[in-house]
Design a protein that fits this description.
Length: 226
């Protein structure tokens, strides 16, 4: 069974807009895949379905063996422990230190504060920011802020990492650094889906590409494989 499975998934908003249209998709454990397509293609809606922010109008969604379409709201905390998220809009807590921002993710998923001394340094070390633990967001560069956001997603040891345009506001050097971190996480066994508009990134790495347009998967391929 795949780590992510969508079967005939349709998302229709109240205004009649169809964000996803009969989508079928399987992503295997430890796979890395880019999700591409123009603005409004359905990329963000797909990610929202995978964290159960949106419940499909039709179809079935399995994430790490859980049927999200049948999941009760009270079970949502279990999902947050399985799926880490990183977005283009970083949204760090400005009045809290890097350490506190990362630890906040543990509180949000119900992890006891006694775990902070073990899990927060581990996550910060993964993104090479252990020396910035006492810094505040305003003292960081854009690339460093995105790394903190990545550490916040990784501190829960997720099975799946969803990265929605994580390099969208970064310069080329910072983008490469964030990309290398995502690849490192993937090599350690985490399933990674990364939405991006950056054709250079997609062309630089031989990874699966899932292309969306008007809510449909119009192409699903591995570069170099006919």
């Amino acid at each position: 069974m795949g780590m992510i499975i969508l079967r005939e998934v349709t998302v229709r908003y109240e205004d009649g807009t169809v964000a996803l249209d009969n989508v079928n998709l399987t992503v295997e454990k430890s796979e890395f895949a880019f999700v591409v397509g123009p603005t409004g293609a359905g990329k963000s809606s797909l990610f929202k379905v995978l964290i159960r922010e949106i419940v499909p109008s039709h179809g079935t969604v399995f994430v790490a063996g859980y049927d999200l379409t049948r999941m009760k709201p009270s079970q949502a905390p279990y999902l947050r422990r399985l799926v880490g998220t990183v977005f283009q809009d970083i949204l760090l807590l400005p009045e809290r230190t890097v350490w506190e921002n990362v630890a906040f993710a543990l509180r949000a998923t119900g992890v006891a504060s006694s775990e902070d001394k073990r899990e927060v340094p581990r996550a910060l070390a993964m993104v090479d920011l252990l020396d910035k633990a006492k810094a505040f967001p305003w003292q960081l560069s854009g690339g460093e802020k995105q790394k903190v956001a990545l550490a916040r997603a990784l501190v829960i040891n997720p099975l799946i990492l969803l990265a929605d345009e994580p390099t969208g506001n970064l310069d080329s050097q910072s983008s490469r650094e964030v990309m290398e971190l995502l690849l490192r996480v993937n090599r350690q066994g985490t399933t990674v889906l990364m939405a991006t508009h950056d054709p250079f990134l997609v062309g630089s790495y031989r990874k699966r590409v899932i292309e969306l347009n008007s809510g449909k998967i119009v192409r699903d391929y591995m570069p170099g494989v006919s």
